[in-house]
Amino acid sequence: MFKLLCYSCLIGLYSGAALCTTSEDVTQKEHLTVPLMQYDFISLSDQYIHSASAGLLLQRDWGSFIGLYTGNEFRDPVSYDFPNTYHSIDTLLDTQFGRHQYIGIFKSDSNKPLTGGLNPIQAGAVYGYELINNKHWQLVLGAGIAVGEFGVELANGDTLPVIPVPLIRANYQSQYFESKFEFLTGPNWSFTVGPNSHVRLTFDSRMDQMRDARDIIFETNLAYRFFDKGHEMGDFAGVSIGFKNDNLGAFKLGNEHYTESLEAHYYSLLVTLDLTLIKVSAGRAFGGRLLYREEIKESMGEGWFVSVQGLIPL
Asked: Does 1 map to a domain?
């Protein structure tokens, strides 16, 4: 199965980092150096999953860089002699010089990252040109290459390690509605209704693969923000209620069994307290499942989850 390379979700994980300074500072492209931390705990009737992350976000005049390491542990034994511990490495370099944009991505999800040849590794380099940039619209089109084990087979049975990828960025912004659409081998779409209002509706989605409905990863929230952007403290705090379909993985085994992979999915009803520097989400988790080798499904039951994200602006 063609494994899609997702990059915009990295920035989405810590979208609040840009709010560590006032709105005026961000407009002036203030230089930011922000260590990142996150801890997720998913407690289901048939499985417990711990995920701890640490990383760094850099924002400069030329663009931004984010690097993130995550350790993932399944507390209860998993089937088919799969290991219980996995590692994720995600990096994204997103630069712009005038109308020219350059994107570099590297990621690895495995029990033994950076081993096993190209199987657990995905990397890409993309160039885009900004065709439109006005008060409301931005449109960037481009292309690049991706390197990894994507499951694209040649006539002799070998897999193709390098594939071309398109780049589309289409953003819209107004007083009442904001939308961002990005496509780099897969769609990533988000929007906000009432971005300048105390009450807002947000939606974020992406599709990493195309197997079934659970591959549409999304989160939608109805939020109340305590302060508006014009407040002397800025728009830094709020609460929300929401619903999401989330995943963990897919992890590739770092050995000769290149078809081996493990992925976890779950739905959740959640409540979030967002104070920008710290964001806490918790809620009911259900519909949990493990997906082995992209086809064997095993239930994880239902339970609850908690997630804590932290930022330390320097």
From this structure: no
**Distance between CA atoms of 279 and 238, rounded to whole angstroms?**
10
- From CA 51, how far away is CA 39, in angstroms rounded? 6
In this predicted structure, the answer to whether residue 103 has a pLDDT above a threshold of 50 is yes
Domain count, the chain: 1
Domain that holds residue 245: 8-311
pLDDT computed for residue 154 by the predictor:
72
| Furthest-apart CA atoms within the chain: distance in Å | 65
* Residue 287: its H or E element: strand 278-292
> Is pLDDT above 80 for 15?
no
* Domain CATH number, residue 128: 2.40.160
Return the closest-CA partner of residue 128 out of 185, 169, 187.
Answer: 169
> pLDDT tens digits, residue range 224-250?
999 877 777 778 899 999 999 999 888
Interval 153-181: pLDDT, tens: 677 767 778 889 999 999 999 999 999 99
- Residue 77 is classified by DSSP as P
Alpha carbons 311 and 58: distance in angstroms, whole number: 12
Helices vs strands, H then E, count in the chain: 2, 16
- Candidates 237, 292, 251, 254; CA nearest to 51 is 251
| Alpha-carbon dihedral angle through residues 52, 55, 57, 58, given to the nearest 10 degrees | 180
Domain membership flag for residue 2? no
Q: Which two tokens stand for residue 86?
A: 């996995």
